[in-house]
Amino acid sequence: MKMRRYLFIGLIVLLLGLVPLSAQQEPADPPTNPETAASTTDSAAVSDDAVNEVASRMYCPICEMEPLHTCRAQTCIDWRQVIREQLAAGQTEDEIITYFVNNYGDRVVGIPADDGLRLFSFAGPLVMSIVALVFAFFTFQSWQRRNELVVQSATGPTEDVHDNKTSNTTNDADTDYRNRLESDLLH
Do residues 90 and 37 touch, judged by C-beta distance below 8 A? Predict the structure, then answer.
């Protein structure tokens, strides 16, 4: 019965751990920035490493939790091109990320837009870890008590636990049982 309760609690904890995954919003359309569209010729001077350094701090708007610099979706390719153009225009990494956050929301940097979800996404793993540790502690305590009972029943009752009357009665019953068993085996 206790094991079922522990399994039920474990299932609830697992389901609560999946809630932050549903915090992501709908995918965004690819960006168009008229200010950087004119500087296409200068963007060839920006290295892929510089673009990927900025893109590694952002996430794909289509694929869940995939970094922008590794995603092969067309939207991500377009976003990396916008990053390249903005770098060529002389903008810093933080300015580029601020541009994307202002136009597409916090989800491009992996932070939920809702304050409650943001708090839950940061506090959730901590709470889940504490619950898991408490669950493991009580499970190990239960196993230890069960093992102690098995060892106690295998070794027989101790004098500390029972008073002399019970001990003598138990010893008499054991002696009678042994005598009957030996007589049955011999005949």
Answer: no
CB burial of 38-74 (b: ≥16 within 10 Å; e: otherwise) equals ebeeebeebeeeebeebbebbbbbebeeebbbebebe
The partner residues of 67 in beta bridges, in order of sequence, read 59
pTM above 0.70, yes or no: no
Contact 49, 97 (CB under 8 A): no
Give residues with Cβ within 8 angstroms of 116, minimum separation 6. none
DSSP codes of every residue in the chain: -HHHHHHHHHHHHHHHHTGGGGG--PPPPPP--HHHHTTTTGGGGS-HHHHHHHHTTSB-SSSTT-BTTT--SHHHHHHHHHHHHHHHTT--HHHHHHHHHHHH-GGGGT--SSHHHHHHHHHHHHHHHHHHHHHHHHHHHHHHHHHHHHHHHHH---TTTS-HHHHHHHHHHHHHHHHHHHHHHH-
Q: pLDDT digits over 90-114, tens only?
A: 899 889 988 988 888 777 887 655 6
